[in-house]
Please model this.
Amino acid sequence: MRLAVIGAGAAGLCALRHLTKHPSITQAIAFEQTKDIGGTWVYTEKTGTDDLGLPVHSSMYANLRTNLPKEVMAFPDYPFPKGGNSFITHVEVHDYLKSYTQHFDLNKFIKFSTSVENLEPITQNGNRIWKMVSRGVLSGEEENHEFDAIFVCNGHYSVPLIPKLKGLENFKGTIIHSHNYRHPEDFSGKRIVLLGAAASGTDIGIDLSSTAKEVVLCHKKPPLQSPLPNNMRQACGIKEFTETDIHLDNDEIITDIDVMMFCTGYHYTFPFLHPSCHPQIENERVPLYKHIVSPEHP
Model:
């Protein structure tokens, strides 16, 4: 079989490591549009676009540590180095992925700076195969490929989701998504409202509190029971915006806000899939069997 892996982050590298060791697979290639392995774990100070002119993929911020212990995160046959902290920095995770790639000699199977432009199932001699068009990010040259199966490993923490909220377009303060957050020092002395109390919202809120004047964490979950910094508090969900204020669902008004930060997750996006793949995404859910396999293209 000839197989392709789209993306050389953690999932893509793991797939590639096993595919390249399997005796029945004659070809396995990973297509990675950046110059490095690691996907979302590749930290960059850049926001917006990278040095190749592509949208920045990573959502890492400078002070991020894992919210799972490394002993749980490790691939089963390749543990993290022993000793030290269990909750490690993004730099340590990226170093681990680079070590994994080197240990299993995966670089030779990866086409770097190569994006997948189109992926379409076709029937050839009675069999379904996958016709792929890739493009060199630097050269712009396109190349045609044929594969028997595809592993889609492009991740889903890179295209920000900002909910539609009444009056947001009138708000005069800074509006930012957590995807573009890097340093708490950029918000020194600011009054900041965060929307969303999942992992990124709570962690970024605490990170911001080290320099911000006030941090208000808005969400609709049960109140967090953990102690919070003195200048950080919880509030309910957001109903609407004015130019300078935010009205909450319980009719509380938060005034004189400098920054509105959305920690509201990400869109699933598969821009390379041909319409015949039927990649319908509704309510940020992908219709896959066990969240893995397409029922129409098993």
The mean pLDDT is 95. The chain has four helices and 15 strands. The CA atoms of residues 13 and 101 lie 7 Å apart. Helices lie at 10-19, 70-73, 90-103, 199-208.
